[in-house]
Specification:
glycosyltransferase, 10 helices, glycosyltransferase activity, Galactosyltransferase-related protein, globular, single chain, Galactosyl_T_C
């Protein structure tokens, strides 16, 4: 089996400790990526955490939030210009298992080089004071219960493209070009990965779950629903609705509506005019966050 020239792409904006540990985890990989690219959004200090043998590509942010879709495309362009045949995207919060890259390479070959590939992601508990020990990650948690966890070495065709997420996935260069990358209309948090999967489905591109391609998501505080991303989620949901005729992120949108944060007006969803009166300056602080 020929080995594809592989690039690992990670988008960052802060989270330097997470990035540094990810860089350390790559040194334990059973195979090394030929190329590794960190796309730093308004982050001049990312290089130190990225480690050696890693390119740092700088990308400007926007007033509306982090341009995650455009940044991923920027990383892919950098890799393709250097002959990458397999693109592996890994979120800055994720730590690759030693076998992650070899599993993605095998799956790329076994699937006929034309599928979107996604491995299971485990959400880790808070790190102890001494930090995570990479050698013990496999015993710290279980993959996300809402997504498949096939046996290592197996490929499971997805029956729901909406379960795709961009935390950890791989795609061949030709398939990436067929999809056209991520739609850059999306800025800030939410829906750009659902759009990517919808585009793949519309093109008839298979989506496969890759057994044993584990990634471990480092713990950080989250809110449920993610009120700090309300404006971006509402804006991106409307973009998705225009493109695909349905709403994405329905669980979050329903939760926002139940809390009086948004209102549905026919085919539109807007921020509630009573939001500021109900929640005051807390809302201003939450919805101006881009982290």
């Amino acid at each position: 089996m020929s080995v594809p020239r592989t690039a690992v792409i990670t988008v960052v904006h802060g989270r330097h400790q997470h990035l540094a540990l990810q860089s350390e985890a790559w040194r334990l990989s059973t195979v090394a990526p030929e190329l590794r690219c960190v796309v730093a959004i308004d982050d001049a200090d990312a290089a130190a955490a990225a480690g050696t043998r890693c390119a740092v590509v700088h990308h400007a942010g926007t007033a509306d939030g982090l341009p995650l879709a455009a940044a991923r495309n920027r990383g892919a362009d950098w890799a393709l210009q250097r002959g990458a045949q397999l693109l592996v995207f890994l979120d800055v919060d994720c730590l690759p298992a030693p076998e992650l890259l070899s599993r993605y390479r095998d799956a790329h070959h076994d699937s006929g080089f034309g599928a979107v590939l996604s491995g299971p992601v485990t959400y880790l508990p808070p790190a102890p004071e001494s930090g995570y020990r990479l050698a013990t990650l496999a015993g710290l948690g279980r993959p996300h219960p809402a997504r498949p966890d096939p046996e290592p070495g197996t490929l499971l065709p997805a029956d729901d493209y909406n379960l795709f997420w961009s935390l950890s996935f791989a795609v061949g260069a030709r398939t990436w070009q067929r999809i056209g990358g991520f739609c850059e209309d999306y800025v800030g948090y939410g829906a750009e990965d659902t759009d990517f999967a919808a585009t793949a489905a519309a093109a008839g591109i298979p989506f496969l779950w890759v057994g044993g391609a584990y990634a471990y998501h480092q713990h950080h505080p989250v809110s449920d629903p993610p009120v700090e991303h309300l404006d971006a989620i509402v804006r991106n949901a409307a973009i998705f609705r225009r493109r695909w005729g349905r709403w994405p992120m329905t669980g979050w949108l329903d939760a926002f509506e139940e809390r009086g944060l948004v209102e549905r007006r026919g085919d539109e969803i807007v921020r509630s005019p009573n939001l500021k009166r109900r929640y005051g300056t807390v809302v201003d602080a939450l919805t101006t966050s881009s982290g």
